[in-house]
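User: My advisor asked me to double-check a structure prediction for Fumarylacetoacetate hydrolase family protein before group meeting. I don't want to rely on an old file, so could you generate it fresh from this sequence?
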Amino acid sequence: MRLMVARDGQGTALYFVEGEEAYRLTGQAGFNATDLSGAICAPVEKINQIVTAAKQAAPQPVESLIPALPFNQFGKILCLGLNYVDHVKEGGYEIPTYPAMFIRFPASMIPAGAPMIKPDCSDRLDYEVELMIVIGKGGRHISEEDALSHVFGYTVFNDGSVRDYQRKTHQWTPGKNFDATGAVGPVVVTADKLPPGAAGLNIVSRLNGNVMQSANTADMMWSVAKTIATVSEFTTLEPGDLIATGTPPGVGHARTPPVFLVPGDTVEVEIENICTCVNPIVSEGDAAGKEAAA
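Assistant: Sure, here is a fresh prediction for Fumarylacetoacetate hydrolase family protein from the sequence you gave:
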């Protein structure tokens, strides 16, 4: 099942996506949730009933919808780094025996289509295409063998990273949490519609139409199952938590010469059979000016 949270003339709602058409689920068959949380918490049979009811009405073109964030209120946003060997090498790191981890704040997150903001204090905003896990069933000390049963679905994430601030300390938090630098969506695909662990999918980023990263999710050192088992050793996972699984090689800071995002750029991140997340790059000053004018 392909699900999308988006805005139209009636407000924000959850949609079922089929090809280029979208069916509004919010308001159907007693379903009033306006984000993905309602689908995660509802039994599959109930969601199927809602979809059947929604398809009695005329669909809307997907292109007519404005993507929104998948959750009105985020739970944990956990991120792995250094999960592809060639990316580890291009960054000058040793091959890790335990994944690098950091968290993102909700203010850093934006939906597909929204401007990604290059901060005025840095010229080193970088792109990172990543597979993102949406947790459907919570738990602690989840075994690797049982981990995939805890996945609701998958989406695409662009982990916009301000490299000089990332390297200011051993903790990556500053460089990974500038406002409006983490793009997600627009579609969440339920786990049953993808290979187990979303393995074997092509993962690509493009800058102004030029391919910058091209790899496969099978190349991850920590698979989805291993990631969930590892994370749940130290924290209780809850429905709606998000886990980004790291980026493959080809990022801008590792190129010669380096390639960083500038206002006017368009960056796309795509994972096969999931979706493509497209965002324009704007300067912090321009974004603040537009907000003040509004």
